[in-house]
Amino acid sequence: xxxxxxxxxxxxxxxxxxxxxxxxxxxxxxxxxxxxxxxxxxxxxxxxxxxxxxxxxxxxxxxxxxxxxxxxxxxxxxxxxxxxxxxxxxxxxxxxxxxxxxxxxxxxxxxxxxxxxxxxxxxxxxxxxxxxxxxxxxxxxxxxxxxxxxxxxxxxxxxxxxxxxxxxxxxxxxxxxxxxxxxxxxxxxxxxxxxxxxxxxxxxxxxxxxxxxxxxxxxxxxxxxxxxxxxxxxxxxxxxxxxxxxxxxxxxxxxxxxxxxxxxxxxxxxxxxxxxxxxxxxxxxxxxxxxxxxxxxxxxxxxxxxxxxxxxxxxxxxxxxxxxxxxxxxxxxxxxxxxxxxxxxxxxxxxxxxxxxxxxxxxxxxxxxxxxxxxxxxxxxxx
Length: 383
Known about the structure:
By secondary structure, the protein is an alpha/beta fold.
């Protein structure tokens, strides 16, 4: 019987942080071409397709994908971790043999830094934020600031500890020639940057960039004939506790806690087995809460954990080794970049930021306002 174990066989990124000559469709197309070339596949080999764009069918048509299985799940930045979960199930069941997942955004070139500020009045449209929250002028960063303040109140987390996450990301970005910001960064630099929403400073916030990406999943059987060593999907789980920030049950915990436990159960691993982690870092508090949810330290101990240098280059848990959303790129929904970087590490292709003896990597996405969380465990070997 053919081995239908789901694997990732190809990855490709379009150009970032700024690519003014590429449209949204152009980012999808360039990333797809690079992923196909990486895998050694032809477009005609693709029979399943997923993206998080509202124009799913239009983009599939533009790309020339003739699919028999399709997934348009769109839950913000974690959408692509959900796609891994769904595509793995489809491949195991035989609904598709080879699935393309792609993303593209031109938000920096098209709109610049006005995105997410709510415009001149500082108020998001009701269809974006909900009729209760919008009248009070809350903006995106304000939602994360509330979570950060609560974490500080409950556990004594400090701005200096949050800043360590931005410093670690910048340390890795220095080795990424495509990263938006590469110059050295200190904790004091983060604290001296402009306050955006107390306690989050400008350098606690992700960059705004263009960019796109794609990855291809297939069966372990098919991957034996392809160009790259397969990366195995060992576990994939997800969950949602709320959407609007006013409905978040607890500002210090998210659905990632349960999702991680389930993904680890599927993979048959424990947190200490993980060699490297790619967390969503829309803000420093996002990454801190994911570190805790993924079990790398206890709830409330994320501050001391990052302060001890564990997530930095040479640490025991290198995190966001491409520079993350805080320094490399954040084109709106970054969850696909987490998977691409995890694959690069597991193949041993990360160059100067390669994690030694990397066999297990975790990609953990956050969608909405710490709302919809997806956790994917990837391995260089099957379970």
